[in-house]
Design a protein that fits this description.
disordered N terminus, seven-stranded mixed β-sheet, alpha+beta, 24% strand, 14 strands, four-stranded antiparallel β-sheet
């Protein structure tokens, strides 16, 4: 596939007697891949150095990036190297995510309270899919989740083969695919997390999440979706040149995210290919200033400026040209939304309401406003013949999580004295 641009703008160093170039050239990395298509999770040297620490196999040796182990490190011992017994069920839950948030191209993203589940049980290999994508996604080893599970396990045991022949996988999908809500990232994170968990890693531990971020962001090429999918909340992420780093930005209680989800799909790889490879310096300044204002708006709970802080000139004009994106944004702002933007690569449009002056749990005003904004977005879309649905959701503070429990049959077996 052709190499596609990312948000990273590069230019020659500016000396004391030089002037800023008129345009900045966009750097290139491998493109994002849609949910149903297999992806390759590469493991660079920087991630390899993390693996010894995360798996508890570092033996106290110092590495370039880490000079200490963690007191909570563990790895499976002996012949048992798959942490899932018969009669147990492992459930990996991953939230939807909205990336970019307007000006934060490939860097900003937050989790939304719409979640997919990946359920693993011992049994003959099978891939069941329930919900979104159940008629189109593959039900064999070509499914992107299965590839990610193997990659996550190999990150801990690179010389071991994960025996998936006796593992049954069930995907419960609530995130609509190819709509700009991070379905492909949710699949990637769920699979990698399941592989790490099968290798005995605790997903609640910071070192495991750090490793998961390196694996997932390296596979995607940028962290805007995978960081909030792993950590939850509003995340701002960068690459230091050695590893991916993310920081959380506070989200106010009671904030709501009104989504207009069009019926048509849009692959990130295709919309990314439409982006220009060079941008004017003025456009870079436009986005930088608004990205800074967006962060300050959340840091100070001052949302009056969000209608301007969510503006973008780098990617939204190109990705939203084929449908009434701007009309829906204008309609949402006109009805009182704090800010609105294209979610990820689109085509979903997201408007932020509430979280300020009214408590969604204490009165009806915040809910009333969210419904009014949803109706305005629906009307704007209908005027242009854009079919879709409105969903009122909320930012989620929770990222990926793993729950292991006994199956009903095993609990019944214990009660009856049978052994499973």
């Amino acid at each position: 596939e052709p190499v596609e641009p990312t948000c990273l703008a590069t230019a020659p160093p500016i000396g004391p007697c030089q002037t800023m170039p008129a345009t900045l050239t966009m750097s290139a990395v491998a493109p994002r891949v849609a949910f149903a298509r297999p992806r390759t999770c590469r493991r660079p040297a920087k991630v390899a150095r993390l693996i010894a620490v995360a798996s508890g196999e570092s033996s106290g040796k110092a590495t370039k990036d880490f000079n200490a182990t963690w007191s909570t490190d563990r790895s499976l011992r002996g012949d048992q190297k798959v942490d899932l017994n018969r009669g147990e069920k492992m459930t990996i839950t991953v939230p939807a995510t909205s990336a970019n948030m307007g000006p934060g191209f490939d860097s900003f993203g937050f989790a939304v309270d719409l979640e997919n589940e990946l359920i693993l049980e011992r049994g003959a290999f099978k891939v069941d899919i329930v919900g979104e994508g159940e008629t189109s996604l593959p039900r064999d080893e070509s499914n992107a989740i299965i590839k990610a599970v193997k990659d996550g396990y190999a990150a801990i045991y690179p010389d071991e083969h994960l025996p998936i022949d006796d593992i049954k996988f069930t995907s419960v999908n609530r995130i609509p695919p190819a709509r700009g809500l991070g379905s492909s990232s949710a699949a990637l994170v769920a699979g990698l997390a399941a592989g790490l968990a099968l290798a005995g890693q605790d997903l609640a531990k910071p070192q495991t999440k750090q490793l998961l971020l390196q694996l997932a962001a390296d596979a995607e090429g940028h962290p805007d979706n995978v960081a909030p999918a792993i950590y939850g909340g509003f995340q701002v992420s960068i690459n230091t040149g050695k590893q991916w780093v993310t920081q959380a930005i506070g989200l106010p209680k009671g904030m709501q995210a009104v989504l207009f989800i069009p019926e048509f799909e849009s692959l990130t790889s295709e919309t990314r290919a439409a982006l220009p490879k060079e941008i004017p310096v003025a456009d870079a300044v436009f986005n930088i200033s608004r990205a800074a204002m967006l962060i300050n708006s959340f840091a100070t709970d001052n949302f009056e400026a969000l209608r301007y802080a969510c503006q973008d000139v780098i990617h939204q004009p190109y990705r939203g040209a084929a449908f009434p994106m701007q009309k829906m944004i204008d309609a949402a702002l006109g009805m009182g939304a704090h800010g609105a933007f294209l979610s990820g690569a689109g085509p979903t449009v997201l408007a932020l309401t509430g979280g300020h002056g009214s408590d969604v749990d204490a009165d009806t005003m915040a809910t009333f406003l969210a419904v009014e904004v949803a109706d305005a977005m629906l009307a704007a879309a209908k005027e242009d013949g854009c079919e879709g649905r409105a969903v009122i959701s909320a930012p989620s503070p929770t990222g990926v999580r793993c729950k292991k429990e006994e199956t009903l049959l095993r609990r019944m077996g214990k009660t009856s004295g049978s052994v499973f």
